[in-house]
Amino acid sequence: MIVAANHPPFARIGPVAFAVSNKKLAPEALFGYAVKVLDRRGHTEKELRTKLERRAAAPASVDEAIERLKGIGFLNDQRTAESHAYARREFQRFGKRRVLTELQRRGVDFDTAKQTVEKAYSEVDEMDLIREHLRRKLSCDPDAQLKDRKQFAKVVRNLQGAGFSSGKIIEALGKVVADPEWLDGLEERLAESAEAAADSSE
Predict the structure, then answer these.
(1) pLDDT at 182 over 80
(2) CA dihedral over 100, 106, 110, 116, signed as positive or negative
(3) Which CATH number fits domain 24-75: 1.10.10.10, 3.30.1180.10, 3.90.180.10, 3.90.550.10?
């Protein structure tokens, strides 16, 4: 198919194609675009700024739009962080460490992210969260004995990736593991893996 040169390029998601505009926007149009972006999904200031910088005709209009949106309460990292933490806790059943890392990657400052996560998980029992995570994500009976070492390793990787603390992972698995020796050195291995993951995200 030949597309005329003055037509916008097309992006494709599945079988549906849609036009992608590269048009640069004047200040008022940029503000309107920002409102539409936030209306579709919550963004942090960092995320929204990245999108606006791609569309702004003048760089200064990005700061102007950001300040206007913050002034009317339409852009609020605290609120976005709270929504993110709630969704990850309730629907994904993730642990605190995973959510904290995600918020920082989204551009939420460390203090805000940490306070938000602590508040979101203040009344949550991590062991209950682990049990529910195993049911939902791995279709595992959290009380069933783990007799296969490969399955044990899979569960360990999944729980660590979900952001649960090393101590609680070991506590949970200690109740169901077929061979207690599988837990030997696990805390050190989890700590090394977490440290390597933190280094790679910087």
Answers:
(1) yes
(2) negative
(3) 1.10.10.10
